[in-house]
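Quick start: read one record
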Amino acid sequence: MRIYCLKFRLVRSIKELAAHAWLLKFNVCQPAIKLKESTVNIDLSARRQQSGFTLVEIAIVLVIIGLLVGGVLKGREMITNAKIKRIENDFSGVSAAIFAYQDRYGVLPGDDPSASTRFSGTWRAADNGNGNGNISGGWNSTNNGQEARKIWKHLRGAGLIAGPVDNTDASYQQPSNSFGGLLGIDLNLYNLSGHNIVFGEIPGDIAQILEARGDDGNPSSGSIQSHNSQTAYVIDQRYDIGYRQ
């Protein structure tokens, strides 16, 4: 340890020094800082104790984590509910568009034999339907010559739904639904009669919710169906759900 020495020389006055030769010297030598071992140990122990978290701090962190997790889960639930609501709104909206077209022109969109002469845009005779009162073709068809594809160009031409009106595939393309599948039109799908609005690739748990909100819960009966014979939904399976129009 480094030692510091301090010397003091005290002199009353020059006269006293001469008369009495009085000189007092102090030599003080001692360590500048001297710490007891026990003091060092206490200080290091205190530092080690202060390096961790208190129970209160841990509790606060856990509460914050809980709030964040709860917020994420609630957010996902809200998104799922919004998607379910959009399926139901799309069914109502497409049904209304079909009825509005039929009310205006006296024929079904897609089946309209005069569609190519009714609207602006790019049309050809092949875009007309046969006028037999049915919208034929598969709901997920990719064939522009089928009425199940022509319906979307007819509705777009009438301004009842948004989209291009030309000879590109986009004019005939089915819209997508909120769960990533297609939204299409079919005839007598599953055990349904008449025209059906179909939502493709719906997860089993969502299909179950849609059934519970609008029908009897059975995939093969009622006005909402997704199977020819199945009587219960499988959660990890995807379904093409048909709504009777």
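The first helix runs from residue 14 to 20.
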